[in-house]
């Protein structure tokens, strides 16, 4: 079997509700045709109504062509995930729960690409995000464990603050192939290859409703800012859509060759 001397990874940013799933269905086949990634990963923690991931919607993401689905702070918002996450190795939740062994699911998985493997790790930030174990210590441990099997290691760091994400990038530089940030839903323009070869970006952005706020209907959010009264946030069923992603090209030694941001919306249309 011919040895793979590189690996291309397409990562889709936080998929938000029905518009996000529709954007994935509309654009992923064309992205795969254009960029020819060997592995497609997506963050799916907002894919069902903006919070959590039902089994039906998980299967929908897989049917669209996603290989691995990562999660975040909304992992448990659909209670049915307790029933299917343990039997679903291509769905991972943050690895750094305080009692990870007692928590359903897994925080790292492997996918085979010809005669190579890619390790995919999901970590959860702590700044403004809750009482989790240190993502740095857990991330370091999992990267060391993954290194026993492969040099190709991808990390989705689901975190709030830029500083914590940048710190993780520098902390894992030279050991992980890529550290990409999720959660804030706004694509940042700081993609780079760090000095020791790790691809990094603070946030990939979200995939979902284009004319709202972070993928949600804007009116309830504006009302909350104006009145400081509780409102119910919701995802529209239709409307204009956006897809945010990044494409990472890895060399044979697991270090990154390049990272390219992808943004598709009506102001940045995908060329046919």
Give a nutshell description of this structure.
By secondary structure, this protein is of the alpha/beta class.
User: What is the CATH third-level topology name?
Assistant: Purple Acid Phosphatase, chain A, domain 2
Gyration radius (Cα, Å) is 18 Å
Number of helices: 6
CATH architecture: 4-Layer Sandwich
**Rounded average pLDDT:** 95
Helix content: 10-25%
Low-confidence stretches: none
Tell me what portion of residues adopts beta-strand conformation.
25-35%
Set down the secondary structure blueprint.
Elements: E1 6-12, H1 17-35, E2 39-43, H2 55-64, E3 68-70, H3 81-84, E4 91-92, E5 108-113, E6 116-124, H4 135-147, E7 152-158, H5 162-172, E8 178-182, E9 192-193, E10 199-201, E11 208-209, H6 218-227, E12 241-251, E13 256-264
Parallel strand pairs: 1-2, 2-3, 3-4, 6-7, 7-8, 8-10
Antiparallel strand pairs: 1-12, 5-6, 9-10, 11-12, 12-13
Helix pairs in contact: 1-2
